[in-house]
Amino acid sequence: MHTSQVAIGRPPRVPFGWHVVDGLISLRRSAVGRNVGKAAPLLLIVPALALVGVLASGIGFLTWASLHSYDTFLGLQGEFSFGEYSAIIHDRQFQTDLVRTISMASITAVIAVLLAIPFSLVMARSRRRWMRLALMVVIFVPYLTGDITRTFGWLAVLGPRGPLTWLCERIGVTPPDLIGTLWAIGLGTVQVLFPAAVVILLPAVLRLDPELEHAAGTLGARPSRTFLHVILPQLQIAAFGALAACWALAMGDFADPQILGQGLKDYLANFLQNRYLAIGNPPQGAATGVILIGLVTLGAGLILVLGRVRVRRRPL
Amino acid sequence: MRSMRLTVPVRNLVTAGGVVLLVGPTLVVLIASVSVGRQIVFPPHGFTLDWYGQIVRDGPTWNALLHSFHVALVAVAVGLLFGVPAAFALPKIGIGKRFVVILALSLGLSTPIIVSAFSFFEIFAQLGVYEHLTAVGVAIGIVNLPFMVWPILSAMEDQDPELPAAAATLGADPVEEFIFVRLPLMTPGIVTGAIIVFVLSITDFVISQVLTTSANQTLPVFIYSGLRTSISPGLGAASALFIAIATLVFVVVLRIGGVERFLLRRSSS
Question: Does any domain span residue A56?
């Protein structure tokens, strides 16, 4: 469009940027005839897909390694076999860590969602913008500061001579030594799951129809009853979505058991790393990884399906 | 109204408890990082900024910080080079294809992070790039790719669909329309994505602790090695550095305004 100005009188100096734009325009025009135009979006997506392909092929190598026998002494890969899988499934340590991971993931995920429902209600309903902003900042603190700062904080809080000890001494209770226990791991895990649950729940909470609650109130329902029978059913799908995500996150949690559990209460993620690096049996670590992916996919899928089930309600 | 007093306090109580759970430990790290003494003690003794000075003066800590910056900048570059074009193109393909592509790009997020870490371990060993910091950055960039793509997609959703038509009516070539109309509108999304990826990458622990060695460990891994011997205020200061970075970033992102709109959006997710 700028070329119309150029045609009149002395040619004005065209800024360099416009030459670039003109070049791009002619490039585009020459491409149109050659059917590149239609494929252009795909051409922009393919590099990103190829990049993710690096991870996908890594998972492929991992699976490949898990499906071959391995000589731990010589460090050599042998023939195709399911031996590593049967070896770890019969491994006492694996069984203990598997049960611990699944039960802890289930408990922490449920607690996180139960906390997140009232939290997101308060956040979404707050009339004051600063309050919404403050709660939003708070949600992202554990994510943006990262695993290390987060767990370091718990070590400082729960550790000897920390605030917990101080508080207990004030009340006159013997301070418990929580580091290295499931309590510490659970606290740390809930801290990361809770924000994830809030982020997933918020859109559904914002879609809640306030008219329904008013109607329930007019009909004489107490707020607790309105919450259970009017608000919760509307949040069912989102709550199960949050539960699935939290469960998947907790199943793969590495940092909390590693740092807060101090290797005393390992999850599958820690078991995997120990087999890979400390014990020097990569194929067993790889097999654990494949099992973990399978478990997470199945479990999260099952939770999502459960969320879609319509509960037949008794007439009130 | 009588029973309103019953449930609303429950909600507020849970929210207050949640806030303590989320920020309490972080506050303790901040307090610990400015206290005197070799051990973290509560209530803290005295006030000092000495531990922060130590970060700069202590060679290994400083090196670890530089390694972290290296990794984070590579991850952001990966996001900008690969994620941004994909995000631009995504709305232009069919809805079914779009779903599949988004699912594929989120592979790093849906796979348990420790499994991703060892998958990179395997493939980097095959490619012979294991233990290179740039490779670590690429790995973290791949895992965090969705965080680059989502803010851009949400920025594009907010755009007026009539804009391309309006620009064309005014005689703009599609190239001009892209450079002068669409790109400026998407910039907040790109900046938000880049910042989020930067923070997530500089604080990464799980992938780094698998892929780095004691010679090129990043700051989170360095702090972790220290944690095994003692929980000292010095390590607290190094951890608090991440709090400072996160705070700074959050202020910038909030000013851009994308997060609030994204979180409090009313459309289906």
Answer: no
Give the chain A residue nearest B8 (alpha carbons): A223
Question: Backbone phi, then psi, for A71, in 5-degree steps?
Answer: -95, 105
CB contact under 8 A, A286 and B86: no
Q: pLDDT band at residue B3, thresholds of 50, 70 and 90? A: very low
B175 → chain A, closest CA residue: A25
Chain A residues in contact with B150 (beta carbon < 8 A)? none
Whether the CA torsion B88, B93, B96, B101 is positive or negative: it is negative
Q: Is residue A215 part of a domain?
A: yes
Interface subset of B 181-200, CB within 8 angstroms of A:
199-200
* Cβ-based contacts of A143 with chain B (< 8 Å): 200
d(CA B85, CA B148): 11
- pTM of the prediction? 0.83
Instruction: Quote the DSSP letter at residue B45.
Output: P
Under 8 Å between Cβ of A216 and A225: yes
Give chain B positions within 8 Å (CB) of A139.
22
pLDDT surpassing 60 at residue A3: no
A256: in domain: yes
What pLDDT sits at residue A296? 92
Pairing of strands A68-71, A76-80: antiparallel
Residue A110: give its domain's CATH number.
Answer: 1.10.3720.10
Q: pLDDT tens for residues B144-161?
A: 999 998 888 887 777 777
- Closest Cα partner for B189 from B69, B88, B101? B88
Q: Is the pLDDT of residue B1 over 60?
A: no
Contact A118 B110 (CB under 8 A): no
Nearest to B15 among A41, A118, A223 (CB): A118
Cβ A194–B82 below 8 Å, yes or no? no
Does A68 have pLDDT greater than 90? no
Domains of chain B and any CATH numbers: 46-259 (1.10.3720.10)
**Would A32 be classed as within a structural domain?**
no
Q: Look at B243 and A48 and tell me if their CB atoms are within 8 Å.
A: no
What residue numbers bound the domain in which A283 lies? 83-308
- B interface mutation test: which of A126, A132, A149, A246 has the most B CBs within 10 A? A149
- The tally of domains found in chain A comes to 1
ipTM > 0.90 for the complex? no
**CB contacts < 8 Å between A and B, how many?**
298
A185 and A195 Cβ atoms separated by less than 8 Å:
no
Longest dimension (CA), chain B: 70
